[in-house]
Amino acid sequence: MIVQTCINGARSADFHPQLPLDAEAMARDGAACVAAGAAELHVHVRGLDGRESLAPAAMDRTILALRRACPGTLIGVSTGAWIENDDERTLAAIAGWSELPDYASVNLSEEAAPEVMQSLRQRGIGIEAGLASVADAERLVRLDHGGQMLRILIEISEQALDAAWEVSEGIAAVLDRAGMRRAILLHGSDATVWPFVRRAAERNWSTRVGLEDGKALPDGTTASGNAALTAAAVAIFRVGR
Fold first, then answer.
1. 106 phi and psi, to 5 degrees?
2. CB 155 within 8 A of CB 119
3. CATH top-level class for 3-240?
4. Rounded distance, CA 176 to CA 12, Å?
5. Burial code of 119-149, b = ≥16 C-beta within 10 A, e = fewer?
6. How far is Cα 57 from Cα 47, in angstroms, rounded to an integer?
7. Which residues pair with 103 in a beta bridge?
8. pLDDT digit string, tens, across residues 104-116
């Protein structure tokens, strides 16, 4: 039961003045989040042009900077299909990484998810299975990879809270029926960030917060940055315990 901080995601620079978009900024921000209570970091690596990238040069530079700034902290990355926009290029990039993340998130909604997971396993990289719908959960069950996951992400994009609850409960029900007992990390986005942090605390699941998911604090004000978001989530988890 941890708080993970997702420090940047696919957000653009105009989303927040403290959004970290290069390796050194991610390293500084990551260290501040760990100091605020983050157990892990999830990052979207950027190339020198500021755009998301899985290219070995960008990945190696970023992971090395984070390792130096946050020794002992687990670091995860996204493998979203939109990053390289080509499945073969995605697989080639993973094969070329020298500085390996501890885990990588794979969206089960993406066609090449099985191949990406296999590539990650071959490199010894843990897998977070990202489930945003009941169909994603059903696909994971069919693939029978539940026993090989580091954890399962229930990640909700619906902004209407009733609809978001319905999707998350549907995903959890599929996993329960299939007997998948992997660790679960539950998170929302924007309007649903804090309701899902509280729900995760109630269920003894992990959660995540950060500028990838939203910039508002629980009281609705804009956070100064990722460290403030992290501290707010950690405070909720401490009360929940």
1. -125, 125
2. no
3. alpha beta
4. 37
5. bbeeeebbbbbbbbbbebbbbbbeeebbeeb
6. 8
7. 76, 126
8. 999 999 999 999 9
